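ESCALATION

Customer reports they have been waiting on this structure for their group meeting. Please prioritize. Original submission:
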Amino acid sequence: MSKPSIFSKDYDRKMKNRKRLQIITIIVLVIGILVMLTRAYVQNWLKVNADKLTNNQKQYVNDTNTNTKKTKSDETQKDAENKKEEEQKPTENKSTINVKFPDGKTVKVDCIDNGETKKISSVVSGGSDKISFNISKSADEAVILDDKQNMYVVDLTGKVTAITKDKYISTRGSVIVKDSYLSMKPNFIWHSNPRFISDGKVAYVTQMPWFRTTQYVYTVDIKTNSHVRIPMVQGNKITFGKLTKKGLEMTVDGNEEYISSKGTIVK
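Update from on-call: job pushed to the front of the queue and completed.
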């Protein structure tokens, strides 16, 4: 737009319009420059970050492949080690010892032999008679209770040691014979629930020495067949649990105690 003549009738209005147009032109130019600069910046930013994103994706793929290969390598090595351990582990062979008791009854003692050690794993009645058994901590012996309340200890060689208390002799010298008494009172508990408290000693529940309904606990030394009552232990119901480091778990009328390997009570 040309500059208006100073002598023009609308000089002031035309000058105002001219200045307004110049300002608008400047603003449009500035906005255009800003738009161009912004577009260039955005395009550059997108290009740079696109490259970074591509590099990150490539690095992620590489790391994933590396970790996958490492994991597979670790798993392969672990499988090889496990296989080697399995190959080195001794083969377990099962065997059975047929044991005959003095009264003619038989039991089958199942054993596991890995070539280095032999252990008793179970005991099965050779006939229809009911038996119960408990295996020592070392698994070298098993104590067996038959249906006549006789107790025996069997070792890995098949040797049988009778640890039955055949008779009870009172402090006054009167004698009560086990088999005769049980024939009259078959529900009487002479021997019950025998459990090892050590490799050489067994504990059991009985209604001796007072021959009433109250239950007591005795221990028996396998070598000497010496039966000893544990003092102060009595109740209407006595049960045994597991053999722990503290001793044999024992519950007397709901109260838990322990029998040590020496046959003493531990709270």
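Sent to customer with the following note: The chain is about 30% helix and 35% strand.
Escalation resolved.
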